[in-house]
């Protein structure tokens, strides 16, 4: 009887914490084990047919402890369904000045969610293409394991 109770309690907690009413889209792409080549684009196609209201955009990065830098520069492009293009260059800090990783970590992996843009309105319904490219000086950037984006409805 106790086992059944704990099983139901665990399932209930999973369901409770997996609900995220603000999330409209979230996905990750894994980076090759050899590293993130400067010429490689990480691309996400996002269907925003009913994207009423404003949104917050996040860039998610997962790095290992052997990442050689404390920051990362990224080139971000957003192509709308009507063909218009928004291009940004952004910098995110992955470690504090003492060298401690800023993300939530388990073992040697650290997850970061960086606010990229807030209060964004998508004026055209359809499929938006988000592309992210590393902008560091190294041709091959080692230690970045996954790159993702998250789009949330703004309250």
From TrEMBL:
It comes from Mangrovibacterium diazotrophicum. InterPro entries: Motility-assoc_lipoprot_GldH. The lineage of its organism: Bacteria, Pseudomonadati, Bacteroidota, Bacteroidia, Marinilabiliales. NCBIfam families: GldH_lipo. This is Protein involved in gliding motility GldH.
């Amino acid at each position: 009887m106790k086992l059944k109770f704990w099983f139901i309690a665990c399932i209930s907690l999973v369901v409770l914490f997996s609900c995220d009413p603000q999330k409209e889209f979230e996905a990750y792409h894994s980076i090759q084990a050899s590293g993130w080549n400067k010429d490689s684009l990480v691309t996400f196609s996002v269907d925003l047919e009913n994207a009423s209201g404003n949104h917050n955009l996040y860039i998610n990065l997962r790095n290992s402890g052997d990442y050689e830098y404390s920051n990362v520069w990224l080139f971000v492009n957003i192509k709308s369904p009507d063909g218009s293009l928004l291009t940004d260059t952004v910098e995110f800090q992955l470690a504090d000045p003492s060298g401690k990783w800023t993300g939530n970590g388990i073992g040697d992996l650290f997850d970061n969610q960086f606010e990229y843009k807030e209060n964004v309105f998508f004026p055209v319904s359809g499929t938006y293409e988000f592309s992210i490219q590393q902008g560091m000086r190294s041709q091959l950037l080692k230690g970045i394991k996954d790159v993702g984006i998250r789009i949330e409805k703004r309250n």
